[in-house]
């Protein structure tokens, strides 16, 4: 598959940040085409790592209300301690030598933004 692979580290997750994101989503939903979340088609997958239990449950519940199934299927959640499973999933899309070390890959380059 050709497309972007987005990796999000959720180790700094806070419930207040999730609430703000949901409030923003509700406000902008009216402007979404067909009232559907505009997940870019250029994103082939989104991988979320270090996902707290509560965020996983919130995502599973709210994504059913806000995202079509084809987009939900492109999001993969991994809890802390699930490094091997996460790396196997990433390796399906990207060579590990291209993933920065802060995301448990092998690349020596520093991530410019987080």
Automatic annotation (TrEMBL):
Protein name, per record: CRAL-TRIO domain-containing protein
Domain of life where this protein originates: Eukaryota
Cited Gene3D superfamilies: CRAL-TRIO lipid binding domain (3.40.525.10)
Pfam families: CRAL_TRIO (PF00650)
Positions of the CRAL-TRIO domain: 1-111
